[in-house]
User: Fold this.
Amino acid sequence: MKKILILALTVIIASACSSSDDAGDVNTSEFEEITTILPQGKWFISRLIDGNSDKTSEFESFDFTFNTDGTVKAQNDLFTENGTWNYDNSSSDDEELVLQFGNTTPFDEINDDWEIVSISNSQIELSDISGGDGDLELLTFTKL
Assistant:
């Protein structure tokens, strides 16, 4: 009788565990500090690689200011481009920095959901697989 009772309890306990408890379904927040790091000062694009093309020079004169309200301003001596930014960890696969500017060249190059690769107080490294041609894109912001 004890064996049947133990077996029944084991079955009940095992069935109470759900596959939704799987750690793979949990959203991570490893890079959440990006929301406090980006609004601290001005940044510049120190690297923009699109497949085999280095497009860093297209942004060499621009400083980026990320505001706590989710707006971002890219500015040089002649031009200002306004956009938005957002930290997104809603995917269980990765954490992203979502950048959205208008379709003005060259800012259309950085409109994307960028996967956060690494962050520090002085550098943010991002990557993306291009939807058009499958090329790896790399974007790095460095603090001024």
Notes: The CA atoms of residues 18 and 74 lie 47 Å apart. Strands lie at 42-50, 53-54, 63-66, 71-75, 80-88, 96-100, 112-119, 123-129, 136-143.
